[in-house]
Amino acid sequence: MRILIPSVGGLGVGVFVEWLSAALIMEGLKPNVLNLPGVSQRTGRTLSYMEIGSDGTSFSPFPTKGNIDLIISHEFLELLRVLKEGYGGKGCNVIGTTYRYYTTYEKLSLKRDIYTYENFRDVIEKYSKDHIMADIYKLGISDFSNAHLLGLLCASGYMPFIRRETYERAMEAVRIDTERNLRDFNTGCELLGRIKRDSSPSVIDEISPCDTPDLYIKESIERLGLTYGKDIRDVLFEAVGQIIDYQDVKYARLYISRVYDLHSVLESNGTVRIGVIKEFARVLAIRMMYEDIIRVAEKKISRGRFERIRRLYRIQDRDVFWIKDFFGPDIDELYGILPNLLGKIFDRLLSRYRISWKTGMFTNHISGFLILKGISKLRFLRRHSLRYAKENSLIEMYIDHIRRCSAHTTDSALLAAKGGAIVRGYGDVRREMVQKWKEFSQLTNPHIMSLYLDKLFSEKRFESMG
């Protein structure tokens, strides 16, 4: 049996191969393993090739295209790469996940991730006999590990000659965070049933009702859903929940009213298109939840963040640890939370200076925690602050740009909706991007707008694979 395991550096594929090899040896088989590290750095491409026999004889020192029985990958883009290079085939089974690393250019791109299981499912089906793909986001396992993947392999039946208890004994023999990895392995063994249920088509595509108690929000989402369908409802439900968490229900009402008002404008112009509203709803939510020092303080002391740090560094309950965060807000971010009139005075006096205040504090120590907790409680000041007035003005300009473009063509309106995502970042970066967006907001010709966005974010480089 020939197994190819593509991955990237930093995902611990070496440990996975060691577990699998130990299990095979315990079953009386003799695996031969060849590791091809590729670029020797974190996130560099890696390949592990394994041949399994009863006498240890290896027939080929390197994987042969079209002659692989099983491909196992923790990283989605590497899986697509080896399939497109011809290593898969009608006799090949595939196990993979939707987890992937993002390049710097992709993080800057205005486009959403095109390398999704939905977009490339036909590719995987074309180059495999059977496949199992774990959508880690639908499964709710953000820290999907190699132990989860090994459990999924065990449940798949692709290697029936290895018993479940043998996998467990192999993990105990390797002795790498055994307790945690065995727990993840057992979870992985139970995932196959969930994956099959999620991938089964439902007879009725039901839309869950909005959970918010606010009647205006609920009715507005339902009306938009009737026009644009389930995708818009899902986006709006998610956005409303996050905005309420960010500020309050009243702020969520403002968000929904803006989306509904733009829908009315598009309807009157005869340019109603799901892409425009969906992109606007997504970008508007991000713009309305801008990062100020109140938001930063909330995030730094959130329970979820402390739990993620514990999982990432495998900190046990009995362990004592400190988290030191470093802050460097510009002076305008500090006086930006002051009431609008008072903030304007400071803005006139200090805006010409690029002053920043740098400090560090232990956020899980009582003193640091209380300071950040106090700042996070200033949420009630946000909608009266100078920073809110500035951000709100930019958002109104963004909406006006889409309205002007909708009077020309639907393509112009869609590009204008996407263009709102240009405004991002912090400090000098954000100031520069605001200026870039103001240049963009003067455009209404779809061809010129598209060229501007392509030049700014180099989006076309992500369209070559598909």
Key structural traits:
22 helices, 8 strands, 6-stranded mixed beta sheet, disordered C terminus, globular, two-stranded antiparallel ribbon, 466 residues, alpha/beta, 55% helix
Major sheet strand order: 2-3-1-4-5-6
The geometry reads as: globular
Report mean pLDDT, rounded to a whole number. Answer: 84
Over the alpha carbons, how many angstroms does the gyration radius reach? 26 Å
Instruction: Compute the separation of the termini in Å.
Output: 30 Å
Multimer state: single chain
H/E topology pattern: EHEEEHEHHEHHHHHHHHHHHEHHEHHHHH
**How many helix segments?**
22
Q: What structural class do helix, strand and pairing data support?
A: alpha/beta
Total strands: the figure is 8
Task: Bin the helical content.
Answer: 40-55%
Largest sheet: 6 strands, mixed
> Low-confidence segments, ≥5 residues, pLDDT <50?
200-210, 459-466
Residue share in β-strands: 5-15%
Describe this structure in words.
This protein is of the alpha/beta class. It contains 22 helices and eight strands. The chain has a six-stranded mixed β-sheet, sandwiched between helices. α1 crosses α7 (164-174). It is globular and about 80 Å long. The two termini are 30 Å apart.
